[in-house]
Amino acid sequence: MLALLKRSMLMTLCLTAIAACAALAQDGEPDLSTFTSIFDGKTLEGWQPFGDYQGGEWTVEDGSIVGRQSEGGGGGLLVTAKTYKNYELYGEIFTTWPLDTGFFLRILPERRHYQITIDYRPTGEVGAVYGPFPGGGGGYFQHCPLGLSHWNPYEYNKVLVRIENNPPRIRVWINGEQITDYQDVYYDNKPAFPDSGHVGI
Predict the structure, then answer these.
(1) Is residue 2 part of a domain?
(2) What predicted TM-score, i.e. pTM, was given to this entire model?
(3) What pLDDT, in 10s, does the model give residues 86-113?
(4) Assigned domain for 3 exists
(5) CATH of the domain at 175
(6) How far apart are alpha carbons 8 and 139 in whole angstroms?
(7) Cα dist. 150→22, 74, 180 in Å?
(8) C-alpha span between 140 and 130 (Å, rounded)
(9) CB 153 within 8 A of CB 87
(10) Residue 22 lies in a domain
């Protein structure tokens, strides 16, 4: 299924609103019966390229969204047509090596977002919170140096992300283990970003 000369990612996705979701089980596994799929398993309906990030090759294969580099080696960003506020996002993800991707939370034009990193490279981190800083520039809001130790390079990895409130609290579970708990703060007496936006991959 994977072209060896192209870095790629396979992903299935579903989402639930925080208000409607059940509590996590003791082992960190979500009750997926409370979730609604944001990917129909067959088409990219409800998804669209984002802004200037029109690169990459996006297809649906064997029930997964597959993202590959463009011919020139560039990537892209695919987002939901709808916007979301407080939610849990669940995906099962398989990546080739090396790859730098992630979940983009509440993403809006002008690069306002939080990114949960899936940076599967020697110096990368899985599960860190990354993004543009309110005052300019960008980088890690919170590191997650042990995230890669929970990543299985040979199987689909179960990733659960919860974002709620504004400034948000963001939590991440990889294969049932909580690896990130980040609480953002006010900047100049206001949240860094709006309280809703698209989901991106």
Answers:
(1) no
(2) 0.88
(3) 999 999 998 888 888 899 999 998 778 9
(4) no
(5) 2.60.120.560
(6) 24
(7) 24, 27, 12
(8) 4
(9) no
(10) yes
